[in-house]
Amino acid sequence: MRHPILVTLCLTGAALISGCDDKGDEAVERALQDVNAVDETDLSDVMLTVADPNEAVSYFRRTLGQHPDRIDLQRGLGVSLVRARRYTEAVPAWQKVVKHKEATDADYVDLADAQIRAGQWKEAEKTLDSIAPTHETFKRYRLEAMIADSNKEWNKSDSYYETAVGLTTRPAGVMNNWGYSKLTRGDYADAERLFGDAIRQDRSLFTAKNNMVLARGAQRKYTLPVIPMDQTERAQLLHTLALSAIKQGDTETGKALLREAIETHPQHFEAAVRSLRALEQS
Fold first, then answer.
1. Closest to 60 measured CA to CA, from 84, 34, 30
2. Which of the four, 83, 176, 223, 259, has the lowest number of CB atoms within 10 Å?
């Protein structure tokens, strides 16, 4: 009589052990999936920041082949294509993102950004118009300002730039863009002021320094502004100022500035030498 009971107990014990093994396997599998998810997130972050942009494109395309519906990977591909300056490819990548059920207004802003970079200004304007007015971000208003500039809607442009400046803690770049907008309109004094504001925010922004010199040259102010600059930058800015003077018809002033640029540069300044030689031969 004991044998059936013993058999029953053994079978029950075996089933329990088997059940424990199954649950253990499931727990291990879940743990591994969690670790893989963390590793994958970290790798995606690396690809979006410090990795070579083209390597990042390859990574996200390869990973999307395994998980085609994941919007984070689709976004990663779009960002990487923009970083790699592959704007023609970036546009359809972002168009795919905005069709995803989890797409946000920020994704539409990124699509508009890619469209502007690809030269698709009209399409970018339509994309921005489709975004809810309650989505108020620095990037959205910066792009709105650029669209307004392209349409020569100066009042709108100024309003958008002003709003964008108030929505970021690093306004130097947008101040430089705003100044360039003023420069293209012929509002040289205001442009010079905005470039000065940009330089105060970011002393390393050489583009703003160069633009400031262009604004001064357009006003026939042929002296360098009092701004931070090293010796090489000083030579380059003198060269820009010289070309501006020549463009205004002040050729002798331009020659003098070119000579000063050549003497100032710590190395051989080929561009300035070539410009001066061309002027003297003509």
1. 84
2. 223
What pTM was computed for the model? 0.79
CB count within 10 Å of CB 137 equals 15
Whether 183 is in a domain gets the answer yes
CATH number at 74 reads: 1.25.40.10
Q: How many CB atoms lie within 10 A of CB 89?
A: 16
Percent of the chain at pLDDT > 90 equals 80
Query: At 229, which amino acid appears?
Result: M
- Classify residue 159: in a domain, yes or no: yes
In the predicted model, what is the mean pLDDT of residues 120-136? 97
Q: Which domain holds residue 236?
A: 229-282
- The last residue of a domain, from among 75, 92, 118: 118
Tell whether 62 is covered by a domain: yes
DSSP H helices in the chain:
2-49, 53-66, 71-83, 87-98, 105-117, 121-129, 138-150, 154-166, 172-185, 188-201, 206-218, 231-247, 251-264, 270-281
d(CA 132, CA 147): 17
Q: What is the pLDDT of residue 43?
A: 74
Domain annotation covers residue 24? no
When pLDDT is cut at 50, 70 and 90, the band that residue 45 belongs to is confident
Mean pLDDT of 163-189: 96
Give me the pLDDT at residue 6, please: 39
- Residue 253: name the closest of 203, 216, 201, 207 by CA: 216
